[in-house]
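Long-time lurker, first post. I've been practising inverse folding by hand and with some scripts of my own, and I keep getting stuck on stretches where the structure tokens seem ambiguous. Below is the full token string for one chain I'm working on. Before anyone asks, I'm not after the true native sequence, just a reasonable design that respects the backbone. If someone could post their per-position residues I'd love to compare against what I wrote down in my notebook.
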């Protein structure tokens, strides 16, 4: 007899020797209860959707761009024009029209174009910053960069091999 088949009455009849020889009885493992209609655990839903973050970030960038352009057009350029007007001598009326163009208008136009280029570079940088921030928010919600947008590993090694196949000078 094995320990599994022995019940209490048999144990009392056979004695301890039969039980001592048999391995210890382990209770049968319980089967886990089946879960019905249970969805897999998902990350908690963010309380602010990505679309709202996108609208907010783009709005902040556009407001910053507007303020930058407004302040440049209404404060910086007129003050620069007034300063150039005084420094060139055009404010004293001593210059002719050709001298005014050469000494005041041309430098002002050049500086306005330089400032405009700088403002456009800053606006573009702000827009790219906003794009990077939106991408960070998207990646944070999904757990990483989108697989459809990333390149396949085979394409990466193929590109890497193309770079290394150049002729090298001896």
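-- Answer (accepted) --
I ran through it position by position. Result:
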């Amino acid at each position: 007899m094995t320990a599994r088949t022995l019940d209490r009455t048999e144990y009392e009849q056979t004695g301890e020797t039969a039980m001592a020889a048999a391995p210890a009885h382990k209770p049968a493992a319980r089967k886990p209860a089946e879960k019905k209609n249970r969805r897999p655990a998902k990350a908690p839903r963010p309380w602010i959707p990505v679309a709202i973050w996108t609208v907010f970030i783009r709005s902040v960038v556009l407001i910053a761009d507007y303020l930058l352009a407004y302040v440049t057009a209404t404060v910086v350029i007129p003050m620069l024009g007034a300063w150039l007007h005084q420094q060139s001598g055009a404010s004293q009326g001593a210059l002719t029209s050709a001298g005014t163009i050469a000494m005041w208008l041309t430098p002002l136009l050049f500086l306005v174009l330089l400032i405009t280029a700088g403002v456009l570079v800053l606006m573009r940088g702000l827009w790219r910053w906003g794009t990077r921030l939106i991408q960070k928010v998207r990646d944070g919600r999904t757990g990483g960069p989108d697989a459809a947008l990333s390149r396949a590993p085979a394409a990466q090694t193929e590109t890497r091999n193309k770079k290394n196949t150049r002729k090298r000078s001896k």
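A couple of notes from the structure itself: Residues 58 and 130 are 7 Å apart (CA to CA). The two ends are 87 Å apart (CA to CA). Happy to go over any region you disagree with.
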